[in-house]
Each structure stands twice: as structure tokens, then as C-alpha cells.
Amino acid sequence: MVHFELKFPVRYYETDQMGVVHHSNYIRYFECARNGMMAALGLPIEVAEKELHIMIPIISVECRFRLPARMGDTLTVTADIEKMPLAKLYVKQTVRNQDGQLCAEGQVVLGFINSETFAPVPCPQAFLDILQKADA
Amino acid sequence: MVHFELKFPVRYYETDQMGVVHHSNYIRYFECARNGMMAALGLPIEVAEKELHIMIPIISVECRFRLPARMGDTLTVTADIEKMPLAKLYVKQTVRNQDGQLCAEGQVVLGFINSETFAPVPCPQAFLDILQKADA
Amino acid sequence: MVHFELKFPVRYYETDQMGVVHHSNYIRYFECARNGMMAALGLPIEVAEKELHIMIPIISVECRFRLPARMGDTLTVTADIEKMPLAKLYVKQTVRNQDGQLCAEGQVVLGFINSETFAPVPCPQAFLDILQKADA
Amino acid sequence: MVHFELKFPVRYYETDQMGVVHHSNYIRYFECARNGMMAALGLPIEVAEKELHIMIPIISVECRFRLPARMGDTLTVTADIEKMPLAKLYVKQTVRNQDGQLCAEGQVVLGFINSETFAPVPCPQAFLDILQKADA
User: Fold this and answer.
1) Nearest residue of B to residue C71 by CA position?
2) Which residues have C-beta within 8 Å of that of residue D6, sequence separation ≥ 6?
3) CATH number, domain containing residue A92
4) Do C23 and D27 touch (CB under 8 A)?
């Protein structure tokens, strides 16, 4: 339905003393791709927060680490939305290195809350419209 | 079998512009509790790496975010090992705030590799002995 | 005038592929000690932000790295205020390991801004009172 | 002598509850530009570490924070080497937003150590050659 890719190099501070990217950073890479997708769709997260008064907190994440990424690698991180969100948004994600090898894959589930009351709200219509247009 | 708790305050830089702890940090908190547990068991991770030539990379993580932690909170992070590891080590983890409210919970699966060859190895006997002693 | 110390272990994710704590983390350790000091003085940073509508952004930092901290180290981080703040607050900071060896030292200069208008304001009287009491 | 620029967007997890990029991240941005420069010069840091057995730890950093960067900003980070390194390498650095506004500026001093003995060494000839070629 929506597929997005973001490419960037590993940052030195993301490595740990095992000599590879620390696992927590893949969770952050996932977010980078999701936010890049939002911006590409015309609804950057910071605009959603300020203008739609919507925050999109994460409800759960699962990630399987396949092959360590290393300093010098250029990573491609993907975010895929496969079905229209109702109360929840499901995003499939992968991280691959420059050789196309899968470093990590997972799924993130997000919710929608009002940024002032913090109460759960359904997926805002503006975002549904954008997804429908992207899917057409 | 083994239960460990670690307590520490939220750090300011761990918050994000939603005004709460960024979700990726719970993954890091999990690690803090696991490494605190290793140290408490008498086999600190850096000793395992240097003396046993074993690294314990993460294979997968799943985490459900229940209630946002905030600056000012003092968190208790737990790590529980419920069965003896063979090729894989399963750790159940939670993060609670000072009121005992569950902020996040999840499971981490770890493997064992030789720190020079990066080849998978079974759980080292020294670690099994420690777990058995802790369980007795 | 005010001296504060905070002690905590190095976290694994703070190390990098040089096998030591990544330099950027000392800047974060400095902040932990400053915020620990604020809490100990009775004016936690999150209370200042919410109740006094004051934010205390950093204006400049300088840090000299003396000896790398490592996984397994327990660090003591200090924050010292030596003169009453006017528009700016000067904090001297050090990081030492469990052997008392100096890992990093520096100075941080902070300002005061209104958390709604982001306009610079003088040091709030509540904070001056606290410092004077601490100094007495 | 050598001027390098790297451009990338702010990442959400780099913001804090003040609603702006946490100050420690500028120190990390500086590093990204330095390592980008090394790669552009043909001597990526991970190659220097593995093939030249040289690490380039940071000796000191100073940074002045001018204007907060925010989510949605695209930053340009610069690294400038103005004189040939002997025992120390001096790098001037800036971070600007998409409007050319200066967010942060500073100077980083680095040293050279043997990656096995950790003993200080002079700037490796391979790096001097590269700088001289870049300067020609």
C-alpha cells in the first residue's frame, strides 16, 4: 500500500564494543524510515503534532536481528504499510546493508493520541486520505 | 530461576518532544538490567567477553509499551531467566515506575558467539554453572 | 558553593567500537549530574519547567577527555556551582572512575528562558533562594 | 585546507522534552561530519582503524549552541581542517539549518593512538599525504 525507503550511513557512535551497530539503533532506524515516509507522504510528524494535534506513539515493536551492520555500511531502511489503519497503524520494517543483506526486520504498531489530552483517537482523516491517495 | 532488578532515574536526554521517554530507551533499559544481572551473578559481560571470549549478541526483541515514563520518574527494570539456556538465552523484562505502574514489558532472546571467530557457540559452561548455583 | 556527586555504572550501549565510552556520553553524564543536583536542591528540572515555566538550555560546553571510561567502570560525576547565576549559570564538571582517575572534565554554561515564549529571562528567584540556602 | 559538508535531517529521537534537538547530539553531528570527511578523503575511519592500526580519539571539544535545531530541519554540518596535524588534529565545526542559520559551532581536537597498544603516535603519513593532496 505504501512502501518507503531511506538510505544513510552507519554513524560511529552507533557502534558498541562488540564492533557492530548496537541493537537498540535498529529500533531508531525503523523510526527514521517511518518519519521519512510521513514527510514523503506530505504529513511530516512534526506537522501532525502541531497542526493536527495528533501524536503517534509506539504501542509495540518486535525486531529480529539477522546480521550486524558495521561502521562503513550504508543502510537502506524500509517502512511498509499494508493495510489502512483504524485505531492502530501496522508498519513492517527492514534494514539492509549495501550488499542487500538483511540486517534486521520487524514490525512496529503505533497508535494515535490527542497531543493535548493524550487520549486515544482514531487515525485522523487527513492521514487516511493521504494513504488512500498513495494507494491509488 | 534468576530474577534481577535495577533501579535508576530517567535521564533528561532520554525524553523526546512528546515529553516522555523515547521508546528506544526501554530497549536500552532492558540491556542495563541484563548486564546488571550478569555482574550480580559474578560474570560481568565485559569479563565474559575478555576472559571467556564469548559475546552475547541479541537475536530478537519484542517490547510492548504500556505507559510512558517521564523525567522525574525512578524506574525499576527487571530481568528474569526462567529456563536454562542452550543455544539461546530467553530473558523476560519489565520496566515499572516508582508507583509500580508497568511502563514496558517484553522478551529478549540472546545467542552466544565466539568473540574472535564470531561463530555461534553453546552457552558456556561457566555461565550454566552460575545459573544452576543461582537456581539452587 | 554547591557541590554535587552522582554515581552510576557505564552502560554497554555507551561504548563504541574503540572499546571505550563514546565521547559524546560524557556530555550526557554532565547533564545527569546537573539534573541530580537540581533534584537534590529541591527544584527538579521537570518541576522548574512545569511550575516555574523556566527552561535551562545549554549555551556552551567544553570538555577535555583525559582517560577513557570502560564497561565495568562505576563513574562519579560531579557538578559544581561556584558563583551565583545572573543571566548565566556556570557549572564545573568532572567524571572520575572507581579508582578516582579523572576521565573527563569541563565547564557548561546555561541560560534561562521562559518555557512558553522561549525569551531569555534572568535566573528565577526561586533558584537563587535555593542556591543561597545551599551556600549558607 | 580541507572543507567538508554533510547534510541530513534531524531524527525524532534526537529531540528532547524542550521540543528541540538535545545538545549532546551536536557533538555527535560533529563526528558524523568528520567521519564523512575521512571517507571523502579516501581514508574512512574504519579503514584507518583496521589497516593503519590507528585510532583517532577525541582530546577535547568545545561547542557553542546558537539556535536550537528542531524536528523537520535539514542540517548541514561542516568540518574544516586548517592546519596540518602533528600530534594533534584540530577540526572546526558548524551546524546550520536549512535557512543557513547557525545552530552550533565549535572545535574538536583529536589525537592519534596505536589501536593495539593505545600509545600516542604522530599523525600517520598516509593521512598527511591525503591532506597534502587535498590541499594542493
Assistant:
1) B46
2) D32, D33, D36, D37, D76, D77, D78, D79
3) 3.10.129.10
4) yes
Domain count, chain B: 1
Among A17, A31, A64, select the one facing B60 at the smallest CB separation.
A64
Which range of residues forms the domain containing residue B44? 2-135
Q: Give Cα separations from C24 to A25, A105, C97, D22 (angstroms).
A: 16, 28, 17, 12
By the 8 A CB rule, do B97 and B26 touch?
no
pLDDT along chain A (136 residues), means of 10: 96 97 98 97 95 96 98 98 95 98 98 93 93 86
DSSP 8-state class, residue A123: P
B55 contact residues in A (CB cutoff 8 A)? 18
pLDDT-derived band at B135 (thresholds 50, 70, 90) equals: confident
**Is D16 within 8 Å of B20 when comparing Cβ atoms?**
no
Report residue D96 as a C-alpha cell: 546550520
Residue D49: list chain C partners with CB under 8 A. Answer: 17-18
Phi-psi domain of D126 (left: phi exceeds 0; alpha: psi -120 through 50; beta: other) = alpha
Residues 6+ apart with CB under 8 A from A66: A101, A102, A103, A104, A105
Q: How remote is the C-alpha of A103 from its chain's centroid?
A: 15
Give the 3-state secondary structure of residue B8.
Answer: strand
pTM for the model: 0.97
d(CA C118, CA D18): 10
Which set of grid coordinates corresponds to residue D14? 534526537
